[in-house]
User: Fold these one by one.
Assistant:
Number 1:
Amino acid sequence: SYQQLPPSNSNDGEFSQLDVSCLLARVNRLSKDLKFLCDENTQLKGEIILIKSALNSQTKKISELEIELDDLQQYGRRENVCFSNLKIDDKPVIDQVISLCEEINVTVTKNDLVDVHPLPSTRGHAKRIIARFKDRKLGQQVMGARKSAKNIGANKKKQLAADPSRGFGIQPNITSKRAMLLKQAKAAVEKGQLNGTWVDIKTGAILIRVKPGERPRVMRNTYDILKLVPDFVPTEVLFCVDKLFDIYDSNSGNDCDTS
């Protein structure tokens, strides 16, 4: 704390020379303290900018690695086809897959398949079966003929379907994160009243068609969806390389003027 000014000896109410000297000394001392604090503040701002920049760089690298990892995982699933609502209690699942393919006019034999196995069921969803084909083109042919499954007769459907009241699902086997992006795309299509969304059977990419007859657009991330439906509110941002912080130059403005 600063000492009080000595009492003035002036009888006419004016400051004495001593009063002025004490005031000037206090102003000089405060100016030095302010300059020290401003210099320290500038140094801290610079350090914070370096930390933010490093964190942004690491966040970008992590996001890019996550995208690359998902691409690799999807690449490894190109030979897989996901079947849903197939009955798996009575017959071996491989026989059920072959029978369903036969019903949609695609010939598949046991030699065409590397592996067939059921996946754990999710509440409210039909049980799924993953079939891995030796030749991905044959798997794509099966997925390309999936609309024919709607024409399967009632008797045959009872033999093949876990729930005959529901249709069969024949889809690409996409990663869990792409499945989340597909869910966002479906919600956005409904909200924006767009034409439709689906998964590309060759690449596993999420596609949206805005209007009938238009070429579908690839949705690589949540931002691509928001470009089509700006008022869609996602609960999570997927496949986006985001900055954690906005960085401002500490020298862009002078917060302390000690002149």
Note: The helical segments are 17-75, 93-103, 136-144, 154-160, 176-192, 222-228.
Number 2:
Amino acid sequence: MVNYSKAMIAGSLALGLCLAGSPGQVRASADADLKEVANEAAVAVGDLLLEQLKTEWLPVPKASLLNCGDRDLLLSGAFYLPGPKNETLSAMGWFDVPAGDNSGSLPMPSDTFFIRIEAVEPSGDDDTPDDTKPVELPGLQTREFCARWPALDDLEDLDYFVSEEPDGKFFDREVGLAVPEGCGEDGYEMMPFYQIDASDLDEYDELGIQCDNDGCKIVKASEENPVPVGFRECPN
């Protein structure tokens, strides 16, 4: 069963932020903290979209990962988040996609976004924690984002939502704490994410990725197979 990490609905949350407007656009009262109001609105919209995500095909840019290999995969996304003065870089929690499973659709706020996939490498030893290895997507450009490594011993602890603040520092909205200076401590690190553009999406505005033991590749719905990747199953 796919683990819907609550920060990894981040696609929904990010879309909620876009729908709610930037903090400078939200007007609750003269004395209200605009940033807090915008965040609350984003969470409300994100929660609503999460419920839709489980049952409906949302007409927005999205990423879907079909894992037909023997190893569990973890998917993380990143994007530009509207801010009070300009756009900021944001990355969000890991989405657990077990071997043989499908992530379903993860909404993104625009048709340009970024993804990173990690393959879980079992240690084979109860006393040694599992590790992960980045999955390559050849031909795509990368950009670094501040992200947090997944806690493989606790799949409930995959959440993070790191945004770059106007002063250039990073803040994890999921835990409500500043990220250590330089994004290099406490599990945080600057990581390369692959850039996805509109040309990589199919007619359903979906980035479809299919993985097996030989690697991962972008797959688009077509006349030969019009089923969106988010609804496909692995071949027997």
Note: Residues 1-32, 52-57 have pLDDT under 50 and may be disordered.
